[in-house]
Specification:
Length: about 230
């Protein structure tokens, strides 16, 4: 993992390589810009979405359309700005007509995303939407696991802590998902507090699900295992 003082330069160099790379899959033939990612390389939280949309493709930045506005609003409600987190996508180029990513496209972009995770080494990775979740937590249903904190060992990057939730773009389309998405974001500060205080320690093996919810003055701790 990168030392904190080196992360800014290492992410800048990685993004430069991405922007200068040859087209690594057919998506590169149709896109306007590669969208590497942006934010604070020293961030404790990394958000990973699906892929660039039309606005992101035009500007070369992640989450700049309506979904980006909602993301910034949700971050603001927990006292954060997008400059204090790191935002990336599973795909670095826009799929035609915003269609679903193909497995071979996800695999082609994986080395870039893997290196971003290795350099940033976030305490928490928030997976926005089912395609981001499928890349790290395959076979799960987002409506069943959204808002839950999951510790998993991922090949090539090791043990990481994830929280899946709905993609902001999906919440704009399905308005009934906006409040659940907002409630999931409200958990983020408490999750970080638990991580920093040793709430997740070496005694918790791979596959453990853990979550702490505060409702009013009550604090409820749930710990179990996903099937």
């Amino acid at each position: 993992m990168a030392e904190e003082s080196d992360k800014v330069s290492q992410i800048a160099e990685l993004n430069r390589k991405m922007l200068e790379s040859s087209r690594c899959c057919p998506l590169g033939e149709a896109r306007t810009n590669i969208v590497p990612g942006e934010g604070d390389p020293n961030a404790k939280i990394m958000f990973i979405g699906e892929g660039p949309g039309k606005n992101e493709d035009l500007q070369g930045r992640p989450f700049v359309g309506q979904a980006g506005q909602l993301l910034e609003q949700l971050l603001g409600e927990i006292g954060l700005t997008r400059d204090q987190v790191y935002i990336a996508n599973v795909l670095k180029c826009r799929p035609p007509n915003n269609r679903d990513p193909l497995p071979q496209e996800v695999e082609a972009c994986w080395p870039w995303l893997r290196q971003q995770i290795e350099i940033i080494n976030p305490a928490l990775i928030v997976l926005l939407g089912r395609f981001a979740m499928e890349r790290f937590l395959p076979g799960m249903k987002i409506s069943n696991v959204r808002g839950k904190v999951l510790r998993r060992s991922i090949p090539e990057i090791g043990m990481k802590v994830f929280m899946p939730t709905y993609h902001p773009a999906a919440a704009l389309y399905h308005r009934e998902w906006t409040n659940p998405l907002r409630e999931d974001f409200k958990k983020i500060p408490r999750i970080l507090d638990l991580l920093e205080s040793g709430g997740q320690d070496s005694s918790m093996d791979a596959g453990t699900e853990w979550d702490t919810l505060e409702i009013g003055n009550k604090k409820q701790h749930e710990q179990g295992r996903l099937l």
